[in-house]
Design brief:
With 308 residues, this protein is an alpha/beta fold. It contains 10 helices and 11 strands. The chain has 2 domains: 115 residues, Rossmann fold, CATH 3.40.50; 167 residues, Glycogen Phosphorylase B (Rossmann fold), CATH 3.40.50. 33% of the residues lie in helices and 18% in strands.
Amino acid sequence: MRILFITSTRIGDAVLSTGLLDHLLRAHPGAQVTVACGHVAEGVFTRMPGLERIIPVTKRPWSLHWLDLWRKVAFRRWDLVVDLRGSAIAWLLWTRRRAVMRGGRRAGHRLQHIADALGVKPPPHPVAWFDAADEARAAELLPGGPWLVLGPTSNWHLKTWPADRFVTLADRLTAADGPLPQARIAILGGPGEQERRSAASVLNALPGAVDLVGRLSLPEVAAALARAGLYVGNDSGLMHIAAATGVPTLGLFGPTPASEYGPVGPRAEAVLADGPPATTPMDRLSVDSVVEAATHLLAPVSAPGVAA
């Protein structure tokens, strides 16, 4: 079976789409998948089983990127085309079946919107793909544990929690009486000077922290996050990768909607700034609120019928 899977140019949305892709791989063993996504999101899929090809999509004026993509996929017969970009391309290809996600903003989590394209209920959780080499690299950089991993960067300054609060949070979480006592600290961020500048204040204030900003590929990021005892970070692609690995994850939200983009995973929660959702500045999110959420998230889970 040949599947064309057209997904996001952004890392966060691409990660959210991995749940549906994993569902398809389980439903169709042996399927060969071509993924069309943005350049920055390629690493989300490079370790995916059944991957035949990744086609990077670069946005062009007048939507000419869709013509570029069509030229690369039009002369092949597909069994299924999934278009999560809501474009017209799925209707211009020879395929036995097509599924197109409706565009535009609407109520509900993005994960549900993605699953609705194929009528999958409940929506499958995102997954993170990495291999043994990625695990070895992560173990080299983050030996032992426990590890508190912080993601103090984002692609928009208004959704970035103040750096001094990340520093205070790290001190409180790793204190002897904190929820992650004596944990070692690592700082994650993406490539590029903007990410480096955004993380600089936190790195300078935590000189013992391991600096992973811009040093890892996305599969290596996933492997590193899988070693975390706790991840805390702004609304970003890193937050979604952390949640997808299954580690305890806290996503910090202010002016962006957690109801639509909150982290999804077995142990993932959004912590919201104190005010109207999706409109409140990040400086309205207190350290106390994040510490309380971390303490709750890391509390031991009692067995059924056993008191905590």
